[in-house]
Amino acid sequence: MILNSINLLPLFTIVLFRTASVLFFSPIYNQTNLPLMIKVGLAIVITLAIFPTINSAQLTLPEGMPNFILLIFKEIAIGFLIGYSATLAFGAFVMAGGLISNDMGLAMAEMVDPLFGDRVSPIAQIFQITAFMLFLALNGHHWLINALVLSYQAVPVTGFIESGATISKIIQMFSGLFVAALKISAPIMIILALIVVVSGFLARSAPQMNIFMIIFPTKILIGFVLLAVTFPFITRAIEYLLHLLRNDMLSLAGGL
Q1: Where are the domains of the chain?
Q2: Segment (H or E) for 18
Q3: DSSP secondary structure letter of residue 62
Q4: What is the Cα–Cα distance from 96 to 76, expressed in whole angstroms?
Q5: 69-101: per-residue pLDDT in tens?
């Protein structure tokens, strides 16, 4: 029994690298304030859960340390594709919040984003926190595990990635990121743009009035009012995009 466990240790290590890569590059789990020991422990627990589903009897691991290291890098690449595909959707929410903040005049009011490590606007942070909560409420963390298990059916431990289909899927998800950001932010951006147009007409009709000293705080006020009114619809849009993320992520994992 002990000898059999020792023989399975290299395969377990390979599975652990793919699992850890999915977690470390995926939303929620890749937060900088989440302790590393918790991430590693969670990766080990998930690996122990899915390891019995892998048919180790039909697998022949490569001999030699260089080939073994190359195999580990391939597993990390697969985990990165699955995990980062989920993170792309959250990038759309950050982009949408950034577009709205720029139109409201809040471009300078930024804070550190724990997901991407960059500075983002307060509106983008609100959208991202909302998306996190919906992601957990919809069992999005289970989607990652399902995609991980599905990836072993598409690309076994000793298999190879079909780069053509994978690259086209990633490009499709990148293009969908920009479209989703515009769909979320477009209604508020259009109304704020109309306010600027109206203020331009007022400035021409009443040149003695310094309209630009009024328009900037007015845009901020109206922007927050619009956010409060449209937030239920924005939440529905985020939920819809998260469901699309689930389909895209499973499709990517199954088509590797």
Answers
A1: 2-254
A2: helix 2-24
A3: P
A4: 30
A5: 888 888 888 888 888 888 877 888 888 888 888
